[in-house]
Amino acid sequence: MSFSNSASFLCLLAFSLLAHTVLGADPLFHFCSTPENFTANGPYEVNLNKLTGYLYYQTPPTGFGQGSIGQYPDQTYGLALCRGDASSSDCKTCVVDAGSEIRKRCPYNKAAIIWYDNCLLKYSNDGFFGQIDNRNKFYMWNVKVVSEPATFNGKTKELLTQLANKVEATPKLYATGEMELGESTKLYGLVQCTRDLSSAVCKKCIDGIIGELPSCCDGKEGGRVVSGSCNFRYEIYPFVNA
Fold first, then answer.
1. What is the pTM for the complete model shown?
2. Hey, what CATH topology would domain 29-129 get?
3. For this UniProt entry, which residues form the secretion signal (predicted)?
4. Range 157-160 contact pairs with CB under 8 angstroms and sequence separation of 24 or more
């Protein structure tokens, strides 16, 4: 997949936002994010191999890792982020799979990013730490539409905005929550940022993608906006009062 300045759009039919396992462990999406290539077995590839190995080791204990290896013009920057509720074991498996798979899909690109349900991995020859990445982005949504879209859209935005305020105060830049929509339905939400961002920049990133709700998921029972720096997901589900 070549780089695009606009969001790419995916429709995932009947996906479950609450799943805690990766079924089939297939990537959600990826971008080979630059036309610049490196030479096989050259200094950039050597540095990239060292960086991905470092991320395999650094990421699982806390769910986040970042680093830079080498000197200009062969310096490479990278990070990996696991979903906030992923175990260390699942995190490690995901990051290792991501590092292997992205090199198959973008074998000589100096910059690339790949997302799985449990993690993302990103690297580049340009320093990007602390900056919001809106260039690498995709949407996912459930094809089912609610009966009252306008009311539901307002509730979804309200919940995600609450989580954006909450995430700013959490060290992991990860927050979840839910809202009752009626006697038998709840709305679940999740927001998360890569931890190279400050808390204030994280909130700015989340606020920005919340603004894309009408483009992504108007009236849909579930949806996600996923960028290289932050993401949200929401889904409605039934429940029974005790």
1. 0.88
2. Killer Toxin P4; Chain A (3.30.430)
3. 1-24
4. 157/210, 157/213, 159/187, 159/189, 159/234, 160/189, 160/191, 160/206, 160/210, 160/213, 160/232, 160/234
Question: In the CATH scheme, what is the homologous superfamily, with its name and number, of domain 138-235?
Answer: Gnk2 domain, C-X8-C-X2-C motif (3.30.430.20)
The tens digit of pLDDT for each residue in 149-195 reads 999 999 999 999 999 999 989 999 999 999 998 778 899 999 999 99
